[in-house]
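Quick check before the chapter quiz. The format below is the same one you will see on the exam, so make sure you can read both the input and the output lines.
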Amino acid sequence: MAKRGSASKIFFALAAFGALSQALSLVARVRDSQTDFSVFYRGAVALSQGAGGEFYRAIDAPTGWYNCTPPTGMGVLYGLTPLTPTAAAGVWAAFNLCLLGVGIWLLAGIVKRLEQDGQAYESSFLWASGTLLALGSSCIQVGQFSVLFVACWLLYVWAVAMDRKWLAALSIALPASVKVYPAILAGVPEFLRRHHEVARIALCLVGLVIVVPFFLYGPRSWELAVGFVDYSLLAPGGRVADSADPTAFSNQSIDAVMLRYLTYQEPFHSRAPWLAHLNLGASQVLFVANLVRLAILAVTAFVTSRAARRLTDSPVLVTLLVMAAWCAALYLILPGAKGRYAVYAFPAFLPLLASAATRPHSKWLCLAAGLSLFLLMQLGPDWLNALSISIAAPIFLWTFNLRVLARRVPAFPPSPILRPFARDESELDSQVRCRGN
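Here is the expected output.
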């Protein structure tokens, strides 16, 4: 136990050092204008100078990347526009480090309020905190919004535990207003059968998507919203279509992986001519990839809603487990999944690390957690990413979290056959749980 405690402290210290070093790296890289934050900052400056809907049609000149962040998301950086790029990057890096600290504090509060398995989550707390820092460092290095989103999702679980209804709604609505795909998690309260929260989330979204942009941009807000939808979401050459491009080895999304193995993509296969592949049509493969995404969402919705319906005696734990499963699903279906977004999967590590802290054969779970962290952060060589091995990590985390939820729900309803052999209702419940496991 002492060795395990020392190992967790060393891991936490190394992860904290890594997060700090990546924050400093962001400040240094901004000078070369080749980071995500550079694009965000230049976009915010352009909007502060009066750019309209054509902003989303333009491409960032130094990088050649799209301006694809919604108006509300650009508004997050609006206050940094008076600063120099280097100073703005320093403020943004410090803000993200603070968010990581807030995330650890929220996680501690959640663990204290768990109705079940609190000891398991407490035993793995340092490992979980180090994992958050490690995954967050990949995001901080490029200046993405990912740490903000994960802090909001942890805040949601904490707010549910504290019965802070409006805070819970805001914590789900904010990520969905800054970028599009976190809107998937707006369905989490519905799957938890917390129907009253859905209306609050809708009201928060209206305020964040309509009122806040109008306050920042004035009459231009409608033009910017239309430009974002037209050029970023619907345009054939927009960001959504570009996210399936398998050329970048770091892209480990479902469609990119399927295109590498099932089609011939000249920009990619010229860089990796040794990779065996089929020659199917790209459009058919992308259609199947989207069907796979829909299947993942459907299975996640079924398992999480079933668990929330049957497990009503542990609302905080169930909220955490449902959030973990949906975060794993979100990263798995994410277009353009890269290491900079890997922190999205952090909540999915929590049940895994808690299981590793308490189960007899924990070495295999520890190995799985470490390997998943390694793959999600894409720490291996380029040839490993070209093989798309990293997609195994979100697949494993997704299936593991669904299994954790499914094992907590009896597989069958209470049977009359069991009742004559049970001395009391508690024994009957025990027999039913055994059948469920």
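If your answer matched, good. The two ends are 29 Å apart (CA to CA).
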